[in-house]
Amino acid sequence: MKKTSLALLVGALLLTATSAYAAADCKSYPKEEWASEESLKEALEAEGYTIKKFKIDGSCYEIYGRNKEGKKVEIYFDMKTLAIVKAIGLKD
Question: Which Pfam families match (predicted)?
Answer without folding.
Answer: PepSY_2
